[in-house]
## 1
Amino acid sequence: DAKDLGGNRLAFFSPHMTEVLTERLRVEAGLRHAIEHGGLRLHYQPIMDARTGQVSSVEALVRWADPERGLVSPLQFIGIAEDTGLIVPLGEWVLNEACAQARRWLDAGWGEIPVAVNLSARQFQEPDLDRVVDRALQRTGCPSHLLQLEITESSIMEPVEQALQTMQRLTSLGVQLAIDDFGTGYSSLSQLKRFPVRKLKIDRSFVNDLGSNDRGEALVDAIVALAQKLGLRTVAEGVETEHQAQWLARLGCDELQGYLFSQPCAPQDLENWWQGRVAGSPVGITRGSAAP
Ligand code: C2E
Ligand code: MG
Ligand code: MG
Ligand code: MG
């Protein structure tokens, strides 16, 4: 409380703090309303197989369709959702919607398209996460092998034994796990081999450094080598240039994701993108121009 800050109570009533708090309360109220009244959207970004050039999966990324501000980026509300606990109902909505979409693509004849869903640290710590995931799969009829869950390094840090159990309960449902933003956290490399994960997603910052400095190449090279030793697949995030894509493929990175291929977009736009490449099916797609 205020006394802990040396009794400087004024700090709590500065106009700036009031503004920040007011804004947070506004976001919280708006977000709560959006969760309950259909104000959230999922966009999907394709992830390409570096070897074949085919789409290997898509990542679901949440947006908030705010009547005044338009589509709001998750960077502007996921943190607040975590602090307020709204991440729990929000995360459940995302899981349900992503599973429902995978099922719709299956039913519409697009084939089996694995969908990756991001989990926040707070969701990962919810004791009934596996039941929430299972319920989403059952309710939507999404085959469990089509659901991938992305967990950041920081959420699996402590306590490691508990994280391990959570991951085991999830994989026993048949879903696959990936570590997101790999290289930016502090996950212990010695623990990594104990985790039942299938993929490491190499953070965008390293991909960005490729070709502009040696550090980038050394780090990507090291992560790919480590992953190969552990039998894990690697996905590079934030691939924006053909040059980066070639570099990553040469370093042995398995999958590529970024604006070079497509921005995250609404399901209908993604379907148009698929259609525009090879008539009818996302299978057999090769690299081309970015979607709108
Ligand atoms: P992330 O999981 O690492 O997702 C990748 C982010 O990089 C996405 O940002 C994507 O639009 C962006 N991106 C993809 N390709 C490129 C590229 O070539 N260049 C650049 N500059 N950026 C690229 P987005 O959609 O703004 O999401 C940001 C973060 O918000 C995500 O990072 C994830 O941590 C979080 N997030 C998004 N959706 C959800 C969700 O449903 N639940 C939770 N818990 N977190 C989410
Ligand atoms: Mg992700
Ligand atoms: Mg990421
Ligand atoms: Mg990231």
## 2
Amino acid sequence: FIDDISAIEVMDSRGNPTVKATVRLSDGTTAGAIVPSGASTGKREALELRDGGERYMGKGVLQAVENVNSQISDVLIGMSPFNQAVIDATMKELDGTQNYGNLGANAVLGVSMAVARAAAQSLGIPLYRYLGGANAMVMSTPMLNIINGGSHADNNVDFQEYMIMPVGFEDFATSLRAASEVYHNLKSILSAKGHSTSLGDEGGFAPNLSSNEEPIQVIMEAIEKAGYVPGEQIGIALDVAASEIVTDGGYRLESEGRTLGSEELVAYYENLCAKYPIVSIEDGLSEDDWDGFKLMTEKLGDKIQIVGDDLFVTNASILNEGIERGIANSILIKPNQIGSVSETMLTVRLAQRNGYTCVMSHRSGESEDAFIADFAVALNCGQIKTGSTARGERTAKYNRLLEIENEIVYSEYLGSALFT
Ligand code: PGA
Ligand code: ZN
């Protein structure tokens, strides 16, 4: 049974405080988990409880820590750690709101993850095996964000993420190697062109460029220079994070000095998809622009993966609405958008049953905790995006996946199916 639960305030990768929860079981097993934090958050995400005031520019999480140490501990101590759904439901009931508006999703998720990890450790099995059972067998194709823009960097690029997706390889280790080689070639290409090679929040480069298309052009160059075939071996994926660029007059492309309406923006994507091996576009429209998303799905849905992040916020009922209305064909999975391990699993299940692909995802504010690597394999997500091949909080996830791949024999690449 659960013997003790506690939390402390620790640092995330952007230097902001976040919650680390620790769970001790009666057999002596102790496990902790650290909660991540986004910058370009969706409006309907579960509440991230921040203290306000002057401490840490208002971003302290002492109240969330206190909620773990008192209210949450009080209800969970003595319970079995082996029934995750009951643990999570108990916290949901204690909170009493739909979005963890009382306890804070950062308090709840920290405990939820720490309980799962303690349970796995107590049984002596890896976390992915505990959460996924014998069914955990599909390695994830990585989506690596090698040029950062939008609210993740100080450069002028409007789109938030330019990712490479190594889809044409036999296994995860070879995919990661290819991505790393492209990353290094990109660095020398940017240097040679006189651009900055400093890094954004997710470990990708953050140069100033003349349009939102130019990052794709330099990435294409880097893929070829690294000796890989664009499209066949390495595809390109975008996260526009369009909720961040929407204005009253339309979608503002600052670096290009123009503002586009939904139809024009979808046409912009159609043009990019015709010119480059783009396999996936996330949040191409703003979270409120469901008509625009519908249009994009009609125009591009049979050619590429259309991912909803801010759009669906890992929320099963919002996803369900999207499924009914034929919006997008894929969902980004961020546990802290919904607040617990069990609710994340339910959303993945709903997506998979309805033919939507799932992309497990980090946040732009991360930590050394690699929970999502195990989680992606446990749920057979088939895809994971967790930044570039640089910055420890990003490589922690890739390094964990390398370990997992060594342990499980079977691997299948969903990514390659995108090209058929
Ligand atoms: P965030 O960015 O963690 O800042 O929300 C990640 C994403 O938009 O996918
Ligand atoms: Zn996103």
## 3
Amino acid sequence: DAKRGGRGIVRVFDESMDEGIRFRRRVESGLSQAIAKGELSLAYQPIVSRDAIDVVGFEALVRWNTQEYGLMSPATFIPIAEESNLIHELGDWVLGQALDVLQQWPGQYVSVNFSPRQFRRHNFVGHIMESVQRAGIAPARLQIEITETAIFDDAERAAETLYKLRQMGFRIALDDFGTGYSSLYNIRKFALDCLKIDKSFIDGMGRERESAAIVHSIIHLGRALGLGVIAEGVETEAQVQALRLAGASHMQGYFFSRPVNAERALEMARKGTVSGSDDVSTDDHRI
Ligand code: C2E
Ligand code: MG
Ligand code: MG
Ligand code: MG
């Protein structure tokens, strides 16, 4: 940068770091008050059966309407919450909210994302059980979404946690499958119900043979292990056709519906289908 002249790279680097840290602090302090201020909400995205007729469940996705930046993506603030203790408070709020809404749906499950730190929290199993019992919900109606990162650090302990959860009747989904550090050796030891194929592979399916091959492999793996396979981020008719042919058991994506608010989700849940839902919502993040 010519304007900075002799100050050099180190100085430029420092400045950008300061900015990053300032942003993080601001997000952290904003987030610590977000629940009390009512700035958080949940959006629900339907998960549909292979034939795209039945809505079997909804993924709960947290939304934060910040005063400073507008609607902020969870991809931005969840990692910041994860690095501080805020993830627990935020996670508890998400779970409580999702379970409340679930009570009104006829039979679908709610799929809730848990970050690695939540999953490794002391007495995670007891905590989850207590929450569903308090809400009067059958464990089978809660799907716990975790990523490979959450379980592959300490595989032994994770396997035990998952086993207990599964014994109690919870559903377990491995999210963003294929992007983390799974080893097939470990996968077979984990008590899972389904694999969620990451959107990046679905995106690539029509473009590159490699992505299509990976998608097919994951679907075969899932079937061989007796697991469901949810394809994430399905946006086009062509993807739907290809995934059906490949044998994916479930799909989720903008093609069917964007994440919608609780009211709209309830309508879909009651109808039991996404067809005919003239979805015009955008659910776009500004940051
Ligand atoms: P994820 O769990 O993999 O969620 C799927 C993401 O893909 C969501 O982004 C969803 O809105 C988006 N998506 C779904 N279908 C499509 C599609 O067809 N096209 C495109 N372009 N996107 C699609 P979102 O809501 O921004 O969430 C991002 C990530 O933030 C989530 O990825 C999850 O890792 C995390 N997250 C969201 N809510 C929570 C939460 O309550 N707790 C935790 N711990 N993490 C959360
Ligand atoms: Mg997820
Ligand atoms: Mg995912
Ligand atoms: Mg993701």
## 4
Amino acid sequence: RAKQQGRNNYQLYTSAIGTKVLERLVLENNLYKALDSHEFLLHYQPQINLENGQIVGMEALLRWQSQDLGGLVSPLQFIPLAEETGLISPIGEWVLRTACAQNRAWQLAGLPPLPIAVNLSARQFQNKNLASTIHQILKETGLDSQYLEIEITESIAIQDMNFTIEVLHHLRNQNIQIAMDDFGTGYSSLGALKHLPINKLKIDRVFVRDLVRDSNDAAIIRAIVALGHGLNLKVIAEGVENLEQLQFLKAAKCDAMQGYLFSKPLSAEAATRLYQCQYAGRLTQNSVAFS
Ligand code: C2E
Ligand code: MG
Ligand code: MG
Ligand code: MG
């Protein structure tokens, strides 16, 4: 019995400290090889207009299919590590190029043009060459700049406000769209918001999750929609999982939504099929909610 307990204590120790360090090392070593061995891929999650149920955009979400770790690793696990190691630069460039190329391919296949949203990390945003890198990628892939949307977070924006405003103006001057991701969870002041040349607010899914039961969340969502529209911005809600949430957002005049209710993030092939179905007018999923 004592022996057993001793073993349990040891396990407790390793799981608390040892495995954390080990996991990190394994993750880091593998991350270095991942780009070269083509282990990254993008999934695409459709964004839906709340008035008519049409797809109005796609968000590209990075996935790491790791051979050595035996499966899909979440971006929440490896993006912070990629940031620390600097690997985020080549990875982020790969994401931008792949997303733009995919969007161009959809257009060349005759699908109605939509913007593709790409997440930027803090370190990528601080890179002085960002605007020229993006410009180059748009040229290479042949994608018109109005069909690229960059997603930044409040924490990126407030790090160096003047620099942020300058970079965003640079991107806006190229006619690239800018969305503020995870809105409401960061620390940016409302005063700062009016100086940022952005097009869209994305309401973080923490407010959407309990909105049906929590009147505070409901009030926050109504306030964000009013704020966004007052500043001439589009407002989209993330993490919509049920019809009650969708109906609330529709009534609150939120412009669009993204979430498992309509679709999880999909492989390029599955996203293409969904996009084609919608275009062909054969999409009936959830149509009741929009009629
Ligand atoms: P995000 O940009 O806020 O992306 C939305 C996240 O919510 C995605 O998680 C998506 O799969 C998830 N999601 C969408 N609908 C629902 C829903 O109805 N319910 C729930 N529970 N979750 C939903 P994912 O793909 O794991 O990405 C997590 C975060 O990792 C992203 O949050 C983004 O901050 C970051 N990320 C993803 N791809 C990239 C990338 O290419 N570059 C950078 N820098 N960051 C990325
Ligand atoms: Mg995002
Ligand atoms: Mg988000
Ligand atoms: Mg995020």
